[in-house]
Specification:
Keywords: Cytoplasm, Elongation factor, GTP-binding, Nucleotide-binding, Protein biosynthesis. About 35% of the residues lie in helices and about 30% in strands. The chain is an alpha+beta fold and about 625 residues long. The longest helix has 21 residues, at about 440-460. It starts with 10 loop residues before the first strand and ends with a strand.
C-alpha cells in the first residue's frame, strides 16, 4: 500500500455497507448517495438485496468515493464476500431497534478474515427508539464489537428517512478516507469480475473493483484463468465515460474479442500474464470462534477469493481435524478449478454443507506443491509465512520479472536499507540498465525461451539471416518487460551466444543455408543464370525451369544476394555474380576514364536492350557516374 503523500495525485476508494438483513443498508446508501441500489425486480418485490449495488458517494479534486451495498441475507453471503473483498472501509449498519444480529456477527467475521481494518458503525432507525433504549443498544453493540476490527470504530446515529445524522456520517467517511493509505496504482492492473452483461450495440461488459494498477481505453488485456485476450473498448466509472480507471474505483469495461457466455463472475481481468494461475495454494488460516462442526482433514470446502467461488479440499500437515483453535493454522488448499492469486491475497472458507463460515486467511504462496505430513513441512511453511527478505524479494521478482527499488519496497514491505543490502550482497539478484533488478533465474528462463523461438524460426526460415528484432520483442513482450528482453539479447550478443546483423538476430551457431532438398535445384538455377551471361530472363523463369516453387522466391533470392551469388538488377532480373564481375573487369580494362554506351555495346557484344540495364546497375552501385551521354569510372 502507498502512504498518502502531499501531491496532486487523485485517490480512489470504495466503501462497503455491511450488516444484518433489513437493518437499512440500502436505504442508508440511498440517503447518502441519492441512488437506489436495489435494481432487480425481485429485489424490489422482496425488499432485500440479492446482487451487489453500487453508487457514487463523493468526489472532489483530491478523492473519489464509491459505495457498495452488499447483501445481508444469509443465502446471499457469497455476493457479500465478493463485494467486501475489494473495499477500503466498511460502514457496519446496525438497526437501533434490533441491535447486533446473527448476520451482523457473520459479516464481522468475514471482515476480520478479509483484513478490513477501517470501519464506522452506523446505528440506523434511531427514530424508532427512545434515548434510554439507545444507550442500552450502544452498550450492547460496543460489547459485541470487542475484539473485532470495529472495537475502536466511531458510532454515528442516523435515520435514513428523516436524514438525521446523514451529513455527519458522510463527512466522517470523507475525513477517514482522506487520511487512509491508498491502493497501488502503479502495479499491474487487476480487476476481479463480479458482474458480466451485454449492452445492445456495444457487446460484452464486465464490472468490478480495480484491486490494483490502472487500465486505459484501448488497452489489450487478458482474462484469467481462461487466458482470453481482449481489448478495453470503453471504460465507465459510475455510468460516465472515462479514459482510465484506477485502483480503488468501481469500473465497467466494454470488452471486444469475447462473448458474455465465455465469462463469469470470478474471472479476473489483468494487464499482465505475470499473475499466477493455480489450483494449489499454501495458506495461513484462522477459524471462527464457534465452529458448528469439526473441520476434518481433506474435507471439501468452498473458497471465496476475490470474486471467485471455488470448491476444493483443505489439507493439514500437523493435525487431522480442527475443533477449536484460536491461533493460526498453516495448511494448503487443493482446488477443483484454477484461480488467479498472489501472496498476501485474503480469502474466506465456508463449508458447503451444512453451510457455515469456517474461517479465512491469506495466501502464503500461490505456487503450492505436495508436501509430506509432519513438522518439517510446518517449519517450511512457517518460513514462507514470515517471508525472509530474500524470499520476499525473490517472490516479487518471479512474479513481475523486473522491478525498480521503489516498486520492490511496495511489493515486499521491506525498508529501503534492508532491501538494498540484500540486493547488493546476494548474487541471485541482478541490476541491469542501472535502474531495475531481476533474477538470474529469470534471465536464464528468458534466454531459454529466446533460443527456442530463434531455433524454431531458423528451422522454418533457414535461408533468412535471422529474426527481425522488433518481431522477436513483440512476440515476447506479453511475458517479459521490454527493457529486460533488450538486456538479455544484448547480453547474448556480448557473450557471442547470439549474432546481430542490422535488424536481424540469430543464434551464433546458425548459418543461413538452402534446405538440403532444394540445394540441387538451386545449383541448377545458378548454372542456367550463369550460362545466360548478361542476357538474363526474369528471375521467376529460372525458378520455374529448376522446379522451385514461387513461394520460395523472396527468401531464396534474398539468400543468394546475401551470399553474393547473384546481383539483383532492376526487379525482376538478376545476374550471376561471377558473370557480372567478369563483365565489369573486361569493360574497365578496355576503356579509359570515361566511355559511352556504344563503346560498352561493342566491348561486351550486347544490344541496347541488355546494355542499358547493366550500365544503370553500375551507376546504382557507385562504380560509374553518368554525365550526359558518357559514363565516368569512379
Amino acid at each position: 500500500m502507498l502512504k498518502k503523500v502531499a501531491s496532486l495525485e487523485k485517490r480512489y476508494f470504495t466503501i462497503g455497507m455491511a450488516g444484518h438483513i433489513d437493518h437499512g443498508k440500502t436505504t442508508l446508501t440511498k440517503a447518502l448517495t441519492n441512488v437506489d441500489t436495489d435494481r432487480l425486480k425481485e429485489e424490489k418485490e422482496r425488499q432485500i438485496s440479492i446482487e451487489l449495488g453500487f453508487a457514487p458517494l463523493y468526489e472532489d479534486d483530491e478523492i473519489q468515493i464509491s459505495v457498495i451495498d452488499v447483501p445481508g441475507h444469509e443465502r446471499f453471503i457469497r455476493q457479500m464476500i465478493a463485494g467486501v473483498a475489494g473495499i477500503d472501509l466498511v460502514v457496519l449498519v446496525v438497526a437501533a431497534d434490533e441491535g447486533v444480529m446473527p448476520q451482523t456477527k457473520e459479516h464481522l467475521d468475514i471482515l476480520k478474515f478479509l483484513g478490513v481494518k477501517n470501519g464506522i458503525v452506523a446505528i440506523t432507525k434511531i427514530d424508532r427508539v427512545d434515548e434510554d433504549w439507545m444507550e442500552l443498544v450502544k452498550e450492547d453493540i460496543a460489547k459485541e464489537l470487542t475484539g473485532t476490527v470495529f472495537e475502536d470504530a466511531p458510532f454515528v446515529l442516523v435515520d435514513s428517512l428523516s436524514k438525521k445524522g446523514i451529513e455527519k456520517l458522510k463527512q466522517l467517511i470523507i475525513r477517514t478516507l482522506k487520511d487512509q493509505d491508498m491502493r497501488d496504482v502503479k502495479g499491474a492492473f487487476r480487476l476481479p469480475i463480479d458482474q458480466v452483461f451485454t449492452v445492445k450495440g456495444q457487446g460484452t461488459v464486465v464490472r468490478g473493483t480495480v484491486y490494483e494498477g490502472t487500465v486505459e481505453e484501448g488497452q489489450t488485456l487478458t482474462i484469467l484463468p481462461k487466458g482470453l485476450d481482449v481489448k478495453a473498448r470503453q471504460i465507465q466509472v459510475h455510468h460516465q465515460p472515462a479514459q482510465m480507471a484506477f485502483a480503488g474505483q468501481r469500473a465497467a469495461i466494454n470488452l471486444s474479442g469475447v462473448s458474455k457466455e465465455e465469462l463469469e463472475r470470478g474471472d479476473v481481468l489483468v494487464s499482465s500474464e505475470h499473475f499466477i494461475v493455480t489450483k494449489m495454494i499454501d495458506v495461513v488460516i484462522r477459524v471462527v470462534d464457534k465452529l458448528q462442526h469439526p473441520i476434518k482433514q481433506r474435507m471439501p470446502v468452498k473458497l471465496h477469493i476475490g470474486t471467485a467461488e471455488v470448491m476444493g479440499r483443505i489439507v493439514f500437515f500437523d493435525r487431522n481435524e480442527v475443533i477449536d483453535e484460536k491461533g493460526e493454522i498453516l495448511c494448503q488448499l487443493r482446488l477443483d478449478e484454477e484461480i488467479v492469486t498472489k501472496r498476501g491475497d485474503r480469502f474466506i472458507l465456508r463449508r458447503p454443507t451444512p453451510v457455515e463460515t469456517l474461517g479465512g486467511g491469506w495466501v502464503i504462496d500461490p505456487r503450492g506443491k505436495k508436501y509430506r505430513f509432519g513438522n518439517q513441512t510446518i517449519e517450511e511453511l512457517e518460513k514462507k509465512k514470515v517471508g525472509a527478505p530474500k524470499e520476499r524479494i525473490t517472490s516479487a521478482l518471479l512474479e513481475a520479472k523486473s522491478l525498480s527499488v521503489s516498486d520492490l519496497i511496495k511489493r515486499t514491505a521491506l525498508d529501503e536499507e534492508t532491501l538494498v543490502a540484500h540486493l547488493k550482497m546476494d548474487k541471485d539478484f541482478l541490476l541491469y540498465n542501472e535502474r531495475e533488478y531481476t533474477l538470474w533465474e529469470v534471465v536464464y528462463s528468458i534466454k531459454e525461451d529466446l533460443f527456442d523461438r530463434l531455433q524454431d524460426y531458423h528451422q522454418k526460415y533457414p535461408m533468412k539471416t535471422g529474426m527481425n528484432k522488433a518481431e522477436l520483442l513483440q512476440s515476447m513482450q506479453k511475458h517479459y518487460p521490454i527493457s529486460l528482453l533488450e538486456f538479455v539479447i544484448n547480453n547474448g550478443i556480448s557473450n557471442q551466444e547470439l549474432n546481430r546483423k542490422e535488424q536481424y538476430v540469430s543464434i551464433a551457431s546458425f548459418t543461413p543455408h538452402i534446405p538440403q532438398n532444394w540445394s540441387k535445384r538451386t545449383n541448377q538455377l545458378l548454372e542456367e543464370l550463369k550460362n545466360d551471361g548478361l542476357k538474363v530472363r526474369p528471375f521467376k523463369d529460372y525458378l520455374t525451369a529448376a522446379g522451385i516453387p514461387e513461394r520460395m522466391e523472396h527468401d531464396l533470392r534474398h539468400f543468394l544476394e546475401e551470399q553474393k551469388l547473384i546481383i539483383m538488377q532492376e526487379d525482376p532480373f538478376a545476374y550471376h555474380e561471377e558473370i557480372f564481375s567478369q563483365a565489369i573487369a573486361i569493360l574497365k580494362s578496355r576503356t579509359g576514364p570515361e566511355f559511352e554506351v556504344g563503346d560498352a555495346k561493342e566491348i561486351l557484344q550486347l544490344s541496347r536492350k541488355y546494355m542499358i540495364p547493366f550500365l544503370e546497375k553500375l551507376d546504382a552501385i557507385g562504380l560509374t557516374k553518368r554525365m550526359e551521354n558518357k559514363r565516368i569510372w569512379r
